[in-house]
Amino acid sequence: MNKEVFAQIDTRKAHKKEPPGPRGHPLWGSMLDFQKDQLAFILQVARQYGEVVKYRIANLTFIQVNHPQGVKRVLQDNYHNYVKGDLWENFNNILGHGLFVSDGSVWLRQRRLMQPAFHRQQVAAFGQLMTENALHMLARWEAVVDTNQPIEVFSEMTSLTMQVVTQALFSTGLPETNQAIKRAITTLLDHVAFTFEVPFYPPMQVPLPRNLRLRAALKELDRLVYAIIHERQEHPVKNADLLSMLMEARDEETGQGMTEKQLRDEVLTLFLAGHETTANALTWTFYLLAQHPAVARRLQAELDQVLAGRLPTVADTPNLPYTRMVIEESMRLYPPAWITNRTALVDDEICGYHIPAGSYVAVSPYVTQRDPALWPEPERFDPGRFTPERSAERPRFAYFPFGGGPHQCIGQGFALLEATLVLATVLQRYALELVPDHPLELHASVTLRPRDGLKMRIRER
Known about the structure:
Layout: H1 3-14, H2 31-36, H3 38-49, E1 52-57, E2 60-65, H4 68-77, E3 82-83, H5 89-95, H6 104-114, H7 120-124, H8 127-145, E4 151-152, H9 153-170, H10 175-197, H11 209-234, H12 242-248, H13 260-273, H14 276-291, H15 293-307, H16 321-333, E5 340-344, E6 348-350, E7 353-355, E8 360-363, H17 365-368, H18 388-392, H19 412-429, E9 430-434, E10 442-444, E11 448-450, E12 455-460
Parallel strand pairs: 2-8
Antiparallel strand pairs: 1-2, 3-5, 4-12, 5-8, 6-7, 9-12, 10-11
Helix pairs in contact: 8-9, 8-19, 9-14, 10-11, 11-13, 14-16, 14-19
């Protein structure tokens, strides 16, 4: 190879602009700063270094993409290049090849099969069970309204959304099985949260107590879910619930349906992704409304005018725009899925910066949705940001609590409908007040949740 060829290669390398970022410690990089406060760290590096930031966490180097155009490149324009990769191994161990963790042809086939079950009309059919379960929760609250005893809102919302997703998946005739599934799902969620914070924990095959509990929970879940699938195969019920729809789905090209293993993977995926995120969104919404009484009064006025004391229905949701704006602004400040990671398959360029093949690329709604260039006074709770006029002024990926592009959350419509109906059902009857001596700390685990829950007192309106 002559000198001219070497010179051309050196010139090409020189033109590859590397993202800026903190140097960190020679051995562990920025790991200590990241672990001390993950949210503060990713927000601070974005404010300090700009659109694209590079930093190292122990032996892993991350490229954090903050600008909406860069997020669009990762999630939409060049999404084929950004796969879920080995950072998603903990989810793969549990969810197999479910929609949430799969890529490529496997993801595409499953997405096509599942899409009809989440069509707007199908989702609307679950509206009544959402309000009915909210009413059951309020019936429990009646016992504590006059006692001045606080409730733990995150726990209440988690129980509610778990019950909704259980009934949406399996109908309502399996209460004992439902409780067993809930216990096992809770074990799985706890394990995923732990390994998210302790990434070097030994794999599931190592017989440590935590791993043994995980394996036992997975075994129990498999037994229960496969038993339900087998029962449905023997006694099919058309379109009764999500499981029935998934079992009836057929690939348009091949005419094939899902195997039992694929059904199992998608059922667990819907369980894990289908309740905690909505529980978080509702929890943060109640928290913010308690801090902003003027917003709460305007929301309640809309509910009083539109509903006049009756239960909300799916048909009412288009007439509750401010309720929807409150939820959207809550998810701007506290997006349940606060960060997501991808792995670059080949070299790319984002916002003028070189992204080498094999890079771990992170995008964070928590960061981009607090960018003061996109959101004036970003820490202020202002549902008015989501009027159609103001929303149209912003780039598409200035706001992406459900992700975006082809991999956008398939359950977005279900989650927003549930949050709207639950919020409307609760706030017609009660107002929730913060307990002054209960400090709130953000816990950035698999989802963004209050670390020690959220204690609030119930007041009749």
